Amino acid sequence: MRFRRCRFRYTGLVTRCLPDWLNHANEKFQSxxxxxxxxxxxxxxxxxxxxLFKADTCSKLGKIARNSFAEYAPDAAAFARTFDLDASIxxxxxxxxxxKLETEPIEDYxxxxxxxxxxxxxxxxxxxxxxxxxxxxxxMKNSLLPPFFGIRIKPLSRACEDRSVxxxxxFLKALGKxxxxxxxxLPKVTIPEQVRALVELLDSYGGIRIELMIETPQALRNIPAxxxxxxxxxxxxxxxxxxxxxxxxxxxxxxxxxHPACHxxxxxxxVETAGLDVTLSDGPTNILPLAxxxxxxxxxxxxxxxxxxxxxxxxxxxxxxxxxxxxxxxxGWDLHPAQLPVRYAxxxxxxxxxxxxxxxxxxxxxxxxxxxxxxxAVFDDAATGQGLVNHFLRAVYSGAxxxxxxxxxxxxxxxxxxxxxxxxxxxxxxxxxxx
Length: 435
Hints:
This protein is α/β, with parallel strands linked by helices. The protein contains 18 helices and twelve strands.
């Protein structure tokens, strides 16, 4: 094996250096696994059938979410009891949930031509594709869309490919200009060729970003090839737990987010996407917070039964969201607007609970210029520094804390936090010190 000769400036020592092919391999690896870019990731995706979408749909869903929250968690005390929150953070989290529901109740929405649309005639789907595109354009014009938005088409399987392509073309041609942060979600992916075909279809529309839904064992075993087929167009990989568990032969009553099969799938997704600038999303809780009794003149017993049903569904959703957050999944799908208060409650409580401790550790760690250090009984190294940066970046983007809070808590600027990498933050600070 041939090695180059290298001279080190600070000693004048001549020694052997590793070959060029290793340098090239390292550069290729670094380019591919550059890490998360630090861009904002919404905490959820809400989706609804394309046949139901109107320009004011997201506004109406926000109103339903606010009404549900006001009725079944009317104050901070009731909120704390419902979610078993510590009294020290309950009021803070409650206020932030109220503010979120008033200002930005929906972060991400999908106009759905798949499960939420159901089986309809070709004429109905043609009409829905054009009508929902016109509704999207009207919502854009009147600033009624959430920060993230897109459509979910049918699979590009043999049975659905023609219908899926027609719907995509009808929608995009009727829409014209797409909203900011627009994506196309491809469900039930099985082979890389389906992904590559979607990329080619979208090229004529300006290279729209896509999301891949992992809902089959075949897709789970082939995630790297699916992402590679998407090239630079893949923005996220989303888990579809119910189709996935059904494909494994798991019976309906056992299909839920905490099933061991779902744990395995999510862990596999994390391993296969680690180091890539691709976001992950968990699936939805399918037990919905719906009142049992309807009408205006309910008895006290009926009102109590409604509250019990809502709180039970909320408790399950809260548990699922907190579990996902603990496992590093910061986004998930919501099926009903009454789930939104729970989504925000779980996310905000997760970040607020450990805020002071995380801030102390990060300030101390940065002060030691990335030397291994301890705060109390906790040992920190560079990997932990990255985890702490992740905490504050996610906390800001979720709304758990404000950008103005970042310097106060961490000693870092928001621009530094947005770098998304502890190593980049320290490199930039060291360069400033040298200059």
